[in-house]
Amino acid sequence: MSNKTCCLLFIVSAPSGTGKTTVVERLVRVTDRLKLSRSYTSRAPRGDEADGVDYNFVSRAKFEDMIENGEFLEYADVFGNLYGTHAGDTTRCLESGDDVVLVIDVQGARKVRTTGLPHVAIFVLPPSYDVLEKRLRGRSKDSDAAIRQRLDVAREEVAMFEQYDYVVINDQLELCVERIKAIVLAERSKQQCMRAKALEILRTFQR
Ligand code: 5GP
Questions:
Q1: Smallest Cα–Cα separation from 122: which of 165, 159, 160?
Q2: Strands 56-57 and 40-41, how do they pair?
Q3: Is 43 a pocket residue for ligand 1 (Cβ < 6 Å)?
Q4: How many CB atoms lie within 10 A of CB 90?
Q5: pLDDT per position as a tens digit, 4-59
Q6: Kind plus residue range of the DSSP H or E element containing 167
Q7: 17 in contact with ligand 1, CB cutoff 6 A
Q8: 135 Cα–ligand 1 center, Å
Q9: Each residue's pLDDT tens digit, 61-111
Q10: What are phi and psi of 84, to 5 degrees?
């Protein structure tokens, strides 16, 4: 019996400092057939970030060429840098039979919505403004002005939760991962997703 089911595209958005990258990296480790999409960005690598691992790091000129060539499923300017999801990479991954998760900002999520591409959108919220501020200050890799800018943007972003299918609060890392994994598993069990497999089973009932 084939394992073929439909392939799902998940989007995870959250304000900077919510811990979405850690959450999603852990999610893909504990969930089979779920791959994390690697974005392109024009920003420089930070700390021990590596090209082809954390992001595909490209120059701004190269990124703009890729926009011109229509290579992105979506892209956005986030805090002055360009970030984008490569359409071809996403399609290839989905065609290989895996589900794909994009960790993208609210502008990118809006763009994917306008393409009409079926997807499941999940918004991760911090437990409160104060907790988010503490987390951003705790990371201490940004200047005070940059932290204040991130908090201002976060105020606008949290209001977007209504445009998402699911909302998950990152109050505890493991719990947050479990909740998102539960969403992935539930989406995979939807009737339309299970249809091909179910019909295959039904055929075994035919005389
Ligand atoms: P950072 O520079 O901290 O890694 O990411 C900054 C922001 O860019 C985060 O909100 C992250 O989700 C978002 N981001 C990362 N990759 C993409 C992408 O491919 N598209 C969009 N629209 N946003 C992205």
A1: 165
A2: parallel
A3: yes
A4: 20
A5: 568 999 999 999 999 999 999 999 999 999 999 999 999 999 889 999 999 999 99
A6: strand 166-169
A7: no
A8: 18
A9: 999 999 999 999 999 999 899 999 999 999 999 999 999 999 999 999 999
A10: -155, 155
CB–CB of 11/111 below 8 Å? no
Task: Please say whether the beta carbons of 148 and 10 come within 8 A.
Answer: no
d(CA 177, CA 168): 9
Residue at 206: amino acid letter: Q
Is there a contact between 124 and 24 (Cβ–Cβ < 8 Å)?
no
> Ligand 1 pocket, 76 CB below 6 A?
yes
Measured at the alpha carbon of residue 94, what is the angle toward residues 88 and 97, in degrees to the nearest 5?
A: 145
**Range in 19-23, 46-50, 121-125, 198-202 with the lowest mean pLDDT:** 46-50
